[in-house]
Description:
Layout: H1 8-25, E1 30-40, E2 44-46, E3 51-61, E4 69-75, E5 78-85, E6 89-94, E7 103-111, E8 114-117, E9 121-126, E10 132-135, E11 145-151, E12 160-166, E13 172-176, E14 184-190, E15 195-207, E16 210-213, E17 220-224, E18 232-236, E19 240-242, E20 246-252, E21 260-266, E22 269-275, E23 277-283, E24 290-298, E25 301-312, E26 319-323, E27 332-338, E28 353-358, E29 361-364, E30 368-372, E31 379-388, E32 394-398, E33 402-404, E34 414-417, E35 421-423, E36 428-433, E37 441-447, E38 450-457, E39 464-468, E40 481-485, E41 493-496, E42 504-506, E43 513-517, E44 521-524, E45 529-534, E46 542-548, E47 554-560, E48 564-569, E49 578-585, E50 592-593, E51 597-602, H2 605-641, E52 655-656, H3 661-668, E53 705-710, E54 729-730, E55 750-753, E56 758-763
Parallel strand pairs: 2-9, 19-25, 35-42, 44-51
Antiparallel strand pairs: 1-3, 3-6, 4-5, 4-7, 7-8, 7-9, 10-11, 11-14, 12-13, 12-15, 15-16, 15-17, 18-20, 20-23, 21-22, 21-24, 24-25, 26-27, 27-30, 28-29, 28-31, 31-32, 31-33, 34-36, 36-39, 37-38, 37-40, 40-41, 43-45, 45-48, 46-47, 46-49, 49-50, 49-51, 52-54, 53-56, 55-56
Amino acid sequence: MESGPPSLPLLLLLTCLLHCWQGGRGQPSYTIDTVDLTILPSGAVQSGTPVTVRCRVRVSHDNIPHLQHDFQLRLDDVPVHSSTTEDDSIAYQLPRARAADSGSYECRVTVRDKSKASFGRKLHVAGLQTPVLYLSNASPYESEEFTATCSAPEEKGPLVFRFYQMSLPGDPKKIKQPPPSGVSSETTLVLRSVGDSTLYCDYEVNLVSGARRSNRSNEIPVIVKALYISPTMNVLPFLDVFEGDVMEVVCKVVNPPKNIEVFLTKDRRVLKKAPVSLSHLFTAREGDSGTLVCKAEWGNVQKETNKTLTVKELFSKPQLTLQPKDLFEGDRLKMTCSVSIYASERIGNESMRFSIYKDGAKLTDARTYNTTAEPPTNGNYTCRAEATSLSYTDVAKESQALVVKAKVPVSEPVLSVVGGTLVLGKRFQLLCRSDNGTLPIDYTLSSPGRPAETIVVSKPGEEAVFNSSAIRQTSDLSDFLCRAANGENRRSMSVTGRRLQRLSIIEPVSVPVLTVFPGAGDVSGGQNVTLSCSVQRGSLPISFTWFHTETEGPLFFRLSQKREESYSISSIRREQAGEYYCVGDNPANETKRSLRVVIGVKMAGWKKGLIAVFVLCILLILAMILILALKRRLLQFKRRRTGELSVKSASTKAERLSLTQAEVNEAANVTPGMIGKSVWSEHPSGSDSEDQNSVTAPEKPAEPQYAEVQIRQADSNPVAETPETESSEVRPSKQGVPEPADAVSRDTPQFAVGQPGVQRCVYRN
């Protein structure tokens, strides 16, 4: 059975496996096993012994071709040798080991990205090479420079060399130590002591383990020779001379060597220079006193001789004086040129010549100069004095400059108030100032009640400001006096307070007075009230402010050019009653408050009338209610009186009984005990025979009597009864026999209804 071609997924899997196998083959494997370091012949050798330092590495790997090894040798952590090779070992040769090769060695091997170091091995090289000393001149002169060289060529640097001088056996003295260098050191030495001595050198090497010092070098005897080049010096004619004397200074070297030079100096200034010897001529002047130095120089060797010269003044430096010292413009001035000291044995005072100069220009050949001080005379003045010495030499001296500047007299001062405003009753400051006058200027202020006070103005921009106490009235200003002066002997200028310039005087307001119109006290509501606030004194403008104690904040504010202002309240209301006050103020910023005024608000007249009418109405209503109540009580009283009714006989003439509805009702409610008794009201006719009758019932039962009662409703307003108002009648029936009534009780009076408005009352026993 034939197999078909491989499927696509199988081919892809084989391809991936092939790539993975090839990638695994591209990353070789290796490891550094060991790194060994050896020192041959041993770790401790003598100086000059050949030494080999060998480093070997062992690496395990999977047949990596041409594997490179990077070797690095370190001595005390300092690289000393590096090498890259395919070999597994290297050798570092020290043909002649020296002390500088001593230390701890270490080998580090790097293979590709891996590194490993060996254990450290120490090498100790014993012994140092003995140095060798060379001198350029073994017989130098004193202070002569020569060259010395100390070297140890077989050692390894840097080395520290030292040079020694030994004048006596066993007593060496270090004379120089140059800075560290290589294996040799060359330096310059100077020996200043004359005589025999020995020079030698040694060196020192600094290792990690410590410093090592070499043996002494070879010793070289040195003879230091004396150098006789000290110069001789002569000063003629003397060391003490006067100004104008001619001087000569001679300086030379006896038996000089070749190439020697001689210098004459004073105060480090070279006066003259020459080979072997010199002579210097000069005229003695002021300031020539001092030390003269004669110096001989050969190479770097110097010898010197010095002498002190004293030059005395032929005459002192002239002085220019001014009179007067306190000079003002317009004053006469005098300048005098003079000398205080002169050598009388050499010159006479009359032989001296004087001249005066201004700004370098000669004014006069005289000793004095007179003129008037003006601005053109200001300047720098000097004077010159001249005399001839015995040696016929002219000696001239000039004075110091005298600055002449005439003072400007102080002008009349101006007195002013600081700020330009004076508030009466408050402290203030006065400024006293003069427009002209040379500083310093003394200002003195005299004020009432206080001692005089002085202020000195000595710098531009300063001012004389005096603190003054308060004044109460403007006239007090005349008591102030200011004086200005800028010279002790000069007349002072003064000014009084009457002449104060640019002054604004502000008088604080007096206590304001609050007046109420139409008058303080109670006012009627709805009335217009005016509050007038006034002050007696105070500078304008004045601000007035009105306040109400029951109201927060001011009521009204007004800035006025008058001393009285008012505030009106239109139709004052009751809630506006209370305490009022006003406040006055002006630019003096001194606020004054008036006394408080109490305003009461009473009720208006029309309101009182309205209330009176209302009260009267209430009283009338109450009176009517009281009358009705009294009437009711009266009616009750009448009802009690009508408990017994008076009944007229049937034979008598008919009488009318006037009853109200209430009386009828009262009669209707007669109790059984009252049967047989009746009370009749007075007949309106007023008949004397029929005024009032009381009838006693007979012992035998009597027949019921009937009466007709005409009833009208009672008036709501009780009034007196009249014949026209009587509406009830009781009358007997015809024939004197009462008419029977239907269903009438015997004990209760009954009312029979007849004609409209008429009821019949039946009484039964």
